[in-house]
Amino acid sequence: xxxxxxxxxxxxxxxxxxxxxxxxxxxxxxxxxxxxxxxxxxxxxxxxxxxxxxxxxxxxxxxxxxxxxxxxxxxxxxxxxxxxxxxxxxxxxxxxxxxxxxxxxxxxxxxxxxxxxxxxxxxxxxxxxxxxxxxxxxxxxxxxxxxxxxxxxxxxxxxxxxxxxxxxxxxxx
Length: 173
Fold this sequence. Notes:
Layout: H1 2-7, H2 12-15, H3 21-29, H4 35-39, H5 43-56, H6 68-76, H7 80-99, E1 113-118, H8 132-135, E2 139-144, H9 151-154, H10 156-169
Parallel strand pairs: 1-2
């Protein structure tokens, strides 16, 4: 949803609401010079940090248990934490403009778009889909039940079926 934050006008002001701060604090933290050093100070600190998001944003909290060490190893490679966090510094001005409702209004995206919005996403509640059609003029939207922020990991077989079915519906092979 990083890209989605900027094109979908319904998210910006909602993310800026005070009740959302506990869900978006990391965006500010990742901009701090010390963030990569703190998180990467030890294998355990990195693993704990990454686990916070993978478990806390998933509805099926064990969805990443078998790959958590691989995630940790990857983030601990030279430059990976700092490089990943650079996204937050680079997108900060645009994100603030979006939250203030000052981002430029973009024309609707006419490409057929399929969104399977997670039922239990703690960051982006399903109710926020009410304005998606303003951004995507050819929208196929459904709730993706039983998953949190990571439907592709929490229910990969269903995600693959849904994606394949969408492409079949639009005749793209």
